Amino acid sequence: MNTSLAKTKNASSSIGGLGFTFIIALISFGLSKLPGLDHIGQLACAIIIAVVYRQIWGYPEKFRTGIQFSAKRLLRIAIILFGLKLNIDIVLHQGIGLLARGVGTIVFSILLTMLLAKLFKANSSLSLLLGIGTGVCGAAAIAAVSPILKAKEEDTAIGAGIIAFVGTIFAITYTILRPFLPLTDLQYGVWSGVGLHEIAHVALAGAPAGPDALAIALLAKLGRVFLLVPLSFILMYWMKRKNQVESDSEAKIEFPWFLIGFIMMSLFGSYVLGHLIPVPTSVMNSISFFTSFILTMAMIGLGLNVRLSDLRTKALRPLLAMAITSVLLSVVTYFTI
């Protein structure tokens, strides 16, 4: 009888938690369509709502099972499906030079952010996430590497929120500066693709310069997304060595199987869909929407772990380190085009 009751409560918590994150995700998508908020995006809206909810009403304990499912399982599913956005064939055949720039962007962002974090005595875990998000592909990169780095869910949520907000400011700044810069449309596209944080930010900044600029910007950005895979394996090796040094024993690092799924979906989308299997654009758009939606649900689950008291004490210095890195990244990439 007790076992049956426990199963019922667990099922109720699971369904209720999924419904809870689903409803807030719907609200977030609706808000992201409003003027002004459309530049921020649904991920940032979702995290803001989740954080505000936590401060006012506390963590919804009765829905914990479903919320944790969203924060962990749906997050990994979203990363796997995110692989469909990466056309490996285009990156390898047309973007080798941009791929090299992407390597430079990632190394520069991570090293400088961590150097500044050490200088400012900032939280190292959150700073590393922000450095990776700045160098690779924003919130998606932070979500992908968090399990490898064993980062706290709170740090993952804070990092994703910061990167979405700061990246939006930079994207808007790029569009404002574009008419005054001595760059061709293609040069501006490369600058946007190499210097901005997320794919959405690159699209926002690149679109006003025309379709060719947008195409080259997205190609440059896809190169950085592609580099998420080798970076993840480097981080796995680094964590294993770090744990061995600290514990003097064989480190137990959970293999990020969802990255294999990411690679497989990338290969599937690059060489099967549209080639061996015709797929209407509407279907691909629906898959992209579904991916964004479940990623939003995951971010809500993570955002509910954030306490503003911790945000004040933990996030300001990493935010400063990341902001300075982003400014210098934009300046350096501008003068190297």
From TrEMBL:
Regions crossing the membrane: 12-31, 37-53, 98-119, 126-145, 157-177, 213-237, 257-277, 283-304, 316-335
InterPro entries: UPF0324_pro
UniProt KW Zinc-finger keyword: no
Keywords of this entry: Cell membrane, Membrane, Transmembrane, Transmembrane helix
Membrane-protein topology: Multi-pass membrane protein
Highest taxon above the source species: Bacteria
Membrane among keywords: yes
Family: Belongs to the UPF0324 family.
Name listed for the protein in its UniProt record: Membrane protein
